Amino acid sequence: MVSPDDLAQQFGEVLGKEVRAQAIPRDAWVRNLAGMGIPERDTWAFEEMAESINSGWIGFGVEGTKRVDATMNAKQ
Asked: What is the chain's alpha carbon radius of gyration, rounded to the nearest angstrom?
């Protein structure tokens, strides 16, 4: 597992400039995603994924977790 600061440092090394990890408050996710060109109606998948990771419901390589295959249906 790597921290956001570790990732920022590695990106900075590749890009040759300072990169800082910065948390975006939950109420600003849609606005920030829209600012990157994602239509507001399409941000739900990112929101669900981020909430699942932040809550610990999804864990990558965490001891005691198991793989569960699943499908996902787009919201209409």
From this structure: 15
CA 1 → CA 6, 33, 59, distances in Å?
A: 10, 25, 10
Tell me the three state secondary structure of residue 57.
coil
- Tell me which residue of 63, 43, 40 sits closest to 51, measured CA to CA: 43
Gap between the Cα atoms of 39 and 19, Å rounded: 26
d(CA 48, CA 43): 9
The average pLDDT across 10-28 equals: 95
Question: Is the pTM above the cut of 0.85?
Answer: no
Do 29 and 47 contact (CB within 8 A), yes or no?
A: yes
Q: State the DSSP code for 13.
A: H
Q: Are the C-beta atoms of 19 and 2 separated by less than 8 Å?
A: no
